[in-house]
Amino acid sequence: xxxxxxxxxxxEDHPSHKNDFTGSRAPGLLAKWPIIGLLMFxxxxxxxxxxxxxxxxxxxxLEWDKVIANTLPAIALKSPPFVKVVMDAGFYIxxxxxxxxxxxxxxxxxxxxYWQELTMVAIGLVGASSLFLLLSNFFARPRxxxxxxxxxxxxxxxxxxxxxxxxxxxxxAYLLARNMASAFWKAFVSAVALFIIIFVGFSRIFTGGxxxxxxxxxxxxxxxxxxxxxxxxxxxxxxIRSHNVKKE
Length: 248
Fold this sequence. Notes:
Elements: H1 3-13, H2 29-32, H3 34-56, H4 61-77, H5 81-93, H6 96-112, H7 115-139, H8 160-177, H9 183-206, H10 212-247
């Protein structure tokens, strides 16, 4: 291969190059600054650990859990009918909608041969679901007795919805925001993702599907998992690309 072709190959492999721009490529920030992912993992792990201790030792947050679990669903039952529709939407946005969007993204990435992004979506979602099942069954905390509208019988700590929305919508924002042309659109995409994450968590508390600490624990696990796995994937694929360039 000539020097010119090798240079072109390196440019094409770079996710921020204009010819690669599709609004859905990983920007490589986590591989460039892995400290970000490490801090996310540490922060999420510490918060989750603190909430586990609070649960085990019957800490003060459990009283807040009971007060909120008794108050919000009661308000929900007295609310206009449209509130039920909006709050139920939070359940599906954090569940079936993610499954559908994840499937569509996977097909798109396969067609475009964006293997790194496909890996991030697939492992991110499978891992988030697995963590929920593993942790919730381990702690086996019953859900609030005040559940309304959508009833779930699985243990509730940590919230699976909270883990998944952070993992998925956080990744979508990460893939899109970096490639936006202006600071406004970067901020807009990030704000929309943050709004969805908060809305889904609130809707689960408002309808009695989870205690407050269930959702906070889910957010913490989602942050730790996202920081660890997405950083690791970016580093691995960066090494693969570098190795392929050297071989050529």
